[in-house]
Write a structure and sequence with these properties.
This is 6-bladed beta-propeller protein. With 379 residues, the chain is mainly beta. The chain has helices at residues 172-176, 308-318, and strands at residues 16-17, 19-21, 32-43, 48-54, 59-64, 70-73, 79-83, 99-103, 106-110, 114-119, 124-129, 145-150, 153-158, 181-185, 190-194, 214-219, 222-227, 232-237, 240-248, 254-256, 273-274, 277-284, 287-293, 321-326, 336-337, 342-347, 353-357, 368-378. The radius of gyration is 20 Å and the shape is globular. The model is unreliable at 1-26 (pLDDT under 50).
Length: 379
């Protein structure tokens, strides 16, 4: 029932690039559009990240972007339960909310080094620590903790910010030892690394890359994911070790960085273009929704000495956010500009997208936090 997106307050990594890829042979699907069918409004001043949806009980799990509080609301937007404990409390998960999910009638929250399990009233049940020293980035309010089924048993698929390896990302061992996810057994609190890089992955080119992060969705034993700075869609069945597939995403244009030499570091001094980046990925029924930026070639980069407001506007024109729909065979709809009114952040088990209202286009901050319920429909 889950999907990934970057939310305001989340940690996003952006850097520059100098290579590009373009697919002019894409087979186009029909055009699609978003239709608003309902909305959810919560009486809260500030930002709320929607962490998960419990469809059966019609519950919504939110984290506050201003502090470390968690909220549980009903479908009317009424807050029915709140968690607000100091990060160093023995019944807390830490000082920052990474990700959260429902597992049956329990709530699992991932902090930097600790996981905590609560009932639906945020009464502490038990907790466990990350199964290895934390490394890499810590992402706030991303969908990096999702329930899964492996061989009939309930587990969690997690991305904790990096691989289970002591090697740094400019070492060859990092890529040979890389695991994309951790499979967590909730009964024992054990972490099992799963999914190395696919043989077709650009991250096995012999170059080094920083800030490698998947955007993924789990449906039962099926895991679908992309990497933020990659042009492949990956699928994997947790019950079938030989099921790992990679399909090319037919972007209109997507500029990718070639990487930097092993045992070296990124050159930030030499002028370069802006790399393409996948912003969000959702599995909507049998379709895949990808929201992305194509990037900017070096020769088209704007004057970086412009005032910040002017520079933001120029970047918006040169590198607009776009979206496309593709099937599992890689056939795609034509890319379209994203909607200004909202930003998709979750998809539920019925294939409905839930999108946060874009408050940046409003003249003043609203008194209510609004999420729209959307349908992705063929035009």
């Amino acid at each position: 029932m889950k999907a990934i997106s970057a939310l305001p307050g989340a940690i996003c990594i952006v850097f520059f690039s100098c290579s590009s890829e373009k697919n002019s042979d894409a087979v186009h699907l029909p055009d699609y559009e978003f239709v608003i069918v309902d909305s959810l409004q919560v009486d809260h001043l500030g930002s709320l990240a929607l962490l998960d949806i419990h469809e059966e009980k019609e519950l919504f799990l939110f984290s506050s972007g201003d502090d470390n509080r968690l909220f549980l609301t009903n479908q009317s937007g009424e807050i029915i339960s709140t968690f607000e404990e100091p990060g160093d409390s023995p019944t807390a998960f830490g000082s920052k909310t990474g990700s959260g999910t429902f597992v049956g009638d329990q709530i699992v929250i991932m902090g930097r080094t600790r996981f905590a399990i609560y009932d639906l009233d945020f009464n502490f049940q038990h907790g466990f620590k990350l199964g290895y020293p934390s490394s890499g980035m810590f992402y706030l309010s991303f969908d990096h903790l999702q329930p899964a089924i492996q061989n009939g048993k309930a587990k969690l698929v997690a991305f904790t910010g990096g691989a289970q390896t002591e090697a740094s990302s400019n070492q060859p061992e990092y890529y040979s030892e890389y695991n994309t996810f951790d499979l967590i057994d909730l009964d024992s609190g054990t972490f099992t690394p799963v999914l190395p890089f696919h043989p077709k992955s650009r991250f096995l080119s012999g170059k080094a890359f920083d800030f490698i992060a998947p955007i993924y969705q789990v449906n039962g034993n099926e895991v679908s994911f992309v990497h933020k700075r990659d042009s492949l869609l990956y699928t994997y069945n947790l019950d079938q070790p030989d099921s790992f597939t990679a399909t090319r995403i037919p972007f209109d244009d997507f500029i990718m960085k070639e990487g930097y030499p092993m045992k070296g570091k990124i050159d930030y001094e030499t002028p370069s273009g802006r790399e393409g980046m996948i912003q969000s990925y959702f599995k909507v029924g049998d379709l895949n929704l990808v929201i992305y930026y194509s990037g900017i070639k070096l020769e088209n980069m704007p004057d970086m000495t412009l005032e910040i407001d002017s520079l933001v506007k120029v970047f918006g024109k040169l590198n607009p956010e776009k979206w496309l729909v593709l099937d599992d065979a890689g056939h795609s709809s034509a890319p379209r500009a994203t909607y200004d009114k909202f930003r998709p952040s979750r998809v539920d088990s019925e294939g409905n997208l839930w999108a946060m209202q874009n408050t940046y286009i409003l003249d003043e901050e609203p008194d209510l936090v609004t999420y729209y319920k959307l349908k992705l429909v063929q035009k």
